[in-house]
Amino acid sequence: MSPPPGFEAQFGQEVCKLQKSLYGLKQSPRAWFDRFTTFVKSQGYSQGHSDHTLFTKASKTGKIAILIVYVDDIVLTGDDQTEISQLKQRMGDEFEIKDLGNLKYFLGMEVARSKEGISVSQRKYTLDLLTETGMLGCRPADTPIEFNCKLGNSDDQVPVDKEQYQRLVGKLIYLSHTRPDISFAVSVVSQFMQAPYEKHMEAVNRILRYLKNTPGKGLMFRKTNRKTIEAYTDSDWAGSVIDRKSTSGYCTFVWGNLVTWRSKKQSVVARSSAEAEYRAMSLGICEEIWLQKVLSDLHQECETPLKLFCDNKAAISIANNPVQHDRTKHVEIDRHFIKERLDSGSICIPYIPSSQQIADVLTKGLLRPHFDLCVSKLGLIDIYLPT
Q: 197 and 276 share a domain?
């Protein structure tokens, strides 16, 4: 590192070689995580194979203690209260820590408990964002993006402040961690970070107007007896007016609760809607397999086969029929991957009508009735609304 202020004349052009990491350096988080991991493993905890920030310890009586760490923010949970109390005491002896009690606020996310379940929202974060942008008194919007909205680039448009645009979109990306209803809209506006125009800023403001309508909406996790992992996949074929690439969308439910979702522009141009849907299916299957491994790290079992709901019969036919080589040789890797999983019986791909396809909200702008239907099926609720 460079010499501290006041020592420049003594050191000249020389630099200091560090013997240990200092707070604020680029390698400090990695060094701290290695140090913390070594300590946690010494206490008998196992590091997760699916997520290296997850640590678990199962007792002989079948109880489990779970630790999740994000840099220096730590969450402890599980039904082994004795082990959790002992771990907190040992961590206090090793590090300087502060016990904040029951989880209520974590990384900008608010956690609330009730008889119905556990809700996770970002109401304060949303209201702060609306206040910062001066949109707290705006006219609310019913949907985060206009129906069939197609944003592109045009030379006759007026450019806007790039730094302000990037800052706003970055905050919306973080907000989408608990708001799958804005994921597609945020995915669209994030494609124009390098050269935003007025039309793109209007789309960002549309998202803010929608958030004004429902600032407290968030995820609800309910206790169920279902031990299943289910995914819904969809795509919008050639939806981009710039390069005609398709948009993939999927959402996965673990034990009946929405856990992960994604809206992503595909990296290559699809030659047909079936091909676009097929690539989306591959993403959904990968996510299901990863979630199955997460449950394994948590010492939990799930029912098989894993279900992947798709509304495209052609894509389902390609997955089940290995003969159609001429029409599928350009998606050969995805075809082999999906067919292998089908043959092993680890997944199944039931057909679902487009009217019941929940992932529709992650691939295109919808009219309010269909949008509200999809959002309600995702399990999003606003606990701050009067009952």
A: no
Same domain, 346 and 261: yes
Alpha-carbon distance of 52 to 72, in angstroms, equals 14
- The CB density around residue 349, as the number of other CB atoms within 10 Å, is 23
Residues 6+ apart with CB under 8 A from 306: 228, 229, 230, 231, 285, 288, 289, 292, 346, 347, 348
Which pLDDT score is estimated for 326?
A: 60
Q: Are strands 217-221 and 257-265 parallel, antiparallel or unpaired?
A: unpaired
Does residue 359 fall inside a structural domain?
no
Distance CA 261, CA 180 (A): 7
249 and 324 both lie in a single domain: yes
Ramachandran category for residue 17: left, alpha or beta (phi over 0 → left; psi -120 to 50 → alpha): beta
Q: What is the pLDDT of residues 345-366, one digit of tens each?
A: 999 999 999 999 999 999 999 9
pLDDT of residue 327: 61
Burial class (CB in 10 A: 0-12, 13-18, 19+), 120: middle
pTM score: 0.89
pLDDT by residue (tens digit) across 302-346? 898 999 999 999 889 888 876 655 666 667 677 778 888 998 999
Q: Taking the mean position of all CA atoms in its chain, how far away is CA 97?
A: 28
Give the model confidence (pLDDT) of 146-181 as tens digits. 998 888 877 678 889 999 999 999 999 999 999 999
> What does the chain come to in residues?
387
Backbone angles phi, psi at 386, to 5 degrees: -65, 140
Q: How many domains does the chain have?
A: 3
Does residue 375 fall inside a structural domain? no
